[in-house]
Batch of 2 targets.
Target 1
Amino acid sequence: MLPKLKEAEYRGDYRIWLKFADGVAGEIDLESDLWGEIFEPIKEQIRFAEFELNHELGTIVWPNGADFAPEFLYQKLRPDYSLKSVHQKTNAA
């Protein structure tokens, strides 16, 4: 099951406090993750702060279309997290 982001608050610089549906919460710093063409515009902190929580996607998005996968954000809080495929779960049973 994919992590579902429920709350997100800007904390300054490139830091965001996140809370997921399963209760996992904490602050992450995304400065080192802003690489690639889509993230160039939000390297400006004033633009970075313009993110919104998209409830349908369950993640944060920016006006220019940039976003991070919810499982990537979840793993920033829980480094031991790994998304297992349905096939892996079936074989483990």
Target 2
Amino acid sequence: MERQVTTPQVERLAELLGRSRRAVALTGAGVSVPSGIPDFRTPETGLWAKVDPMEVAHIGVFEREPERFWSYYRPRFQALGDKEPNRAHEALAELERRGLIEGVITQNVDRLHRAAGSENVIEVHGSIETSSCTACGTSFGLEEVDDLFDEGGVAICAACGDAVKPDVVLFGEMLPAAALERATELAAAADLMLCVGSSLAVHPVAGLPQLTLDGGGRLAIVTKGETPYDADAVLKLGGEVDEELGALVEALS
């Protein structure tokens, strides 16, 4: 990992992690921006800047107009497929290897935490890793999905001919119960939650930091822009997430 210059704030974060007994990380779209993946709400460049998510990424659109749904998701899947982890992902994987965090709760579906080596990853919004038939349940890996599209641009199950849906949580769907339960347990038990690259504004995940606070734990935030928890955080770093976390690993070395 490229050497980073530490700052007093990074040193303070290293101290907090070093003293913590049950720390957990919570990540959002911002952690993957250095990998070339746009976030959702940044003006001009965010994924939702030029398209209404309710018109392309809602479960109702998938059910009523699958060709419209896949016209948006198919190229996005192709774009995400070749992205690589950045220093922020690698730093979080290193923190887990060192026993400094118990795992990563992520809102991202891009698989990059796992690609970086993180093992305890709770993907509360699902993952592009697989897509599944809505009828027979047959699962298809990301590399298989592109071969499933018919002439109308809709992914069709090779086993039964029914509709295939990516295993990500769409607007209008509930979060996976098991993932949300595990995330809730980790947040409630944490004495430190490290929030990285998230606006902390999308519920129910946005409620997880409050569980840590309610349990007597602390929050440390590494993200650009404001969050609803800035006043509650013991520390807020606003630089590039890959640089801040890269420097954190250096400070811990």
